[in-house]
Amino acid sequence: MTTLPPALDATAQAAADAAEPFAATAPHDRARALVAVADALEAHADELVGVAAAETGLTEARLRGELKRTAVQLRLFADTIVDGEYLDVRIDEADPDFALGVRPDLRRYLVALGPVLNFAASNFPFAFSVAGGDTAAALAAGCPVIVKAHSGHPELSQRTAAVVAEALAGAGMPDGVFQIVTGQEAGVALLRDPRIAAGSFTGSIHAGRLLADIAASRPAPIPFFGELGSVNPVVVTEAAVRERGDAIATGFVASVSGSAGQLCTKPGFVFVPAGHGLDDRIAAEAAQIAEHRLLNPRIADSYKDRRDAVASAPGIRSIADGEIRIAEDGHGWARPSVYAASLADVAAAGAAVLDESFGPLAVLVEYGPGDDLVGALDTLFEGNLTVTLHVGEREDDERIRGLVQAATRHAGRVLFGGWPTGVAVTPAMQHGGPWPATTNDASTSVGTAAIGRFLRPVSYQDAPAVLLPAPLRDDNPWGVPQARARAGESLNWGSHAAN
Predict the structure, then answer these.
(1) Is residue 264 among the annotated active site residues?
(2) Which residues form the Aldehyde dehydrogenase domain (predicted)?
(3) Is 227 in the active site?
């Protein structure tokens, strides 16, 4: 065991003690607990939104929408628990005539990993913070959660944690099932503690990589699910510009400037055909956007440095040179900045332009008839959360299909039309992608599949019926879906291929 300060050690032990009883809670009981948390958050909305607005500078409308999203995803996971399909129950009946010899009775399902340490995000003070998606998914899986609060909204973190803890306790969940800690040292120390079974994180590539390396270097490595960096390229074809250029320009500026561009899905680079003629419309739309406070002084300073680096790169021209104002308290207030350069100049500038700019800034990458867009996506960018394609209504040729394939290689979500800053909280959503978008490109932090990050498979062979977990029993007391391989089926394997 690692040596932790007494208070932190008590936190880790409380989570460890809660792990088995919490994982054993009946689906309806755990589901009701998540709904109780959702109800409690909404009941405290006025107080929580007020605190969040003061600490983050985000608008009331944005924060109320985000709190509602947080409640909705808790309720979605509640239904996911009751449905039971997430347990992936598979039962292979004992088969003396199995094609490879006698087959034992095998029963497999997914079990909770154990205590999860969740590093909260700064830019989503509800949806990816104390009661956000990672917390909801881990609780739904039956894992106790310790949240490492983000320093950008400390009062909100404590108030939200109190609301969540009270709701879970009122729903009869075990002590220690939800706790909060503060401070980077506390988070790192817990991540190294053997009682922590998994970690989750939303934030920068640098910090995420450090934490992922700690999780991987433990004597017994643990899963670590980090959402890190994404510039979310967009490709606009000539046909799309001709058909709806003005609408594309309007949607682009709205997407870049929403929440002052402090979104992991902000479109940072938009490939447009040279001579697109959208400059004036983009500039006009950007001029209507009022300045917006950035989350904290550190982010403001970082954004100013990135904006200066992009603006001064060779070949860059300004379309909307939105200023950033640093107030006496150190907070920054920004308006959208949009720049443009040829594909060749962007490639030549390298990291000075291509690195993520966290804030209301984007670059139009202007390509010519002979430029290879698939090659550009492959060489300029690593993994991303999203790639968006704006194509003409009747465009369907090898060039477009090549772009779709390239987008699929580089992102977890491929959009056609629209803009990536809207992330639907729904079962089929994929919010993850190849490195450095996430540390595990097979996972998602939004949607019902997010629960799988905190589960692992176990098979029981020839277990007495009375010792089987409830989801694996023939009488199926939880009523979960059970995929069965019947005795005798193996003798006909392969027959479907002939049909």
Answers:
(1) yes
(2) 8-367
(3) yes
